[in-house]
């Protein structure tokens, strides 16, 4: 998919964009001043009081554990040149762990910032990206709104690149089909332009797409857990029973969340 010279700069670029988003939201939290006690309580004892909160939770899950990126990680693992399998496994574990920590922090920071800046100030009506951008300036300062815009650009760029690459991996690995790069990128960006052109609420579509991704998590993780638990496939790198059990429990929790969400939407 990528040669050695292409992959390293790309890894650094995506990592840099993710780090930029994380730094921006650290600054946003400093501007918003959320309650430390309430933030800690919400992290330790999360609650879902209604179907709307469950819907948003599924969206956050889908945006954090992006299912198609699992296939991309597998492809990038194969393309790690001049490294032993053990070294590739260690580096992949490290990369994925760091990425998940950053993604989790960013999602927590977004919720905390929104709660502190909007809800606490009586602006519960703020539910759109455009409104949030305009409302941030009078509430917490112009710098906060500018940083918010920067974070959107950085996250959008990284998501576009990763999504395009993941699509390429899936097409090449499952349907054995390749298409020109310009066509692949056009197909990737077409839905966004379609939504904008029709004037559809972009925030609702964004959340809906993330919720849809949450339903794909189990589809990606179930084969992963099964394959990595097979000694015939993995040899001495087979996952331990503890890891396999933990993966199975996570799959069960995701399926329960999806099932509950479906019952509330139907």
TrEMBL record:
Which InterPro entries does its entry note? Answer: NRAMP_fam
Keywords from UniProt, A to Z, are:
Membrane, Symport, Transmembrane, Transmembrane helix, Transport
Q: List localization entries.
A: Membrane
The membrane topology noted for this protein in its Swiss-Prot or TrEMBL record is: Multi-pass membrane protein
What Pfam families is this protein classified in? Nramp
Xref: NCBIfam families: Nramp_1
Q: What is this protein called?
A: Manganese transport protein
């Amino acid at each position: 998919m990528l040669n050695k010279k292409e992959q390293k700069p790309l890894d650094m670029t995506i990592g840099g964009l993710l780090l930029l988003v994380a730094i921006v939201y650290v600054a946003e939290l400093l501007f918003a001043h959320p309650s430390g006690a309430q933030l800690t309580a919400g992290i330790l004892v999360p609650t879902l009081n209604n179907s709307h909160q469950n819907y948003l939770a599924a969206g956050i899950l889908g945006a954090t554990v992006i299912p198609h990126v699992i296939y991309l990680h597998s492809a990038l693992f194969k393309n790690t040149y001049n490294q032993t399998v053990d070294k590739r496994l260690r580096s992949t574990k490290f990369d994925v762990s760091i990425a998940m920590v950053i993604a989790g922090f960013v999602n927590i920071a977004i919720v905390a910032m929104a709660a502190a800046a909007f809800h606490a100030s009586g602006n519960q009506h703020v539910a759109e990206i455009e409104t949030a951008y305009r409302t941030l300036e009078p509430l917490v300062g112009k710098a906060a709104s500018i940083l918010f815009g920067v974070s959107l650009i950085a996250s959008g760029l990284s998501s576009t690149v990763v999504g395009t690459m993941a699509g390429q991996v899936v097409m090449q690995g499952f349907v054995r089909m390749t298409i020109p790069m310009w066509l692949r990128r056009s197909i990737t960006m077409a839905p966004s332009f379609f939504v904008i052109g029709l004037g559809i609420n972009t925030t609702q579509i964004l959340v809906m797409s993330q919720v849809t991704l949450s339903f794909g998590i189990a589809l990606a993780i179930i084969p992963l857990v099964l394959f990595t638990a097979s000694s015939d496939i993995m040899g001495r790198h087979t996952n331990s029973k503890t890891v396999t059990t933990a993966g199975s429990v996570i799959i069960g929790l995701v399926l329960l969340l999806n099932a509950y969400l479906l019952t509330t939407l139907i």
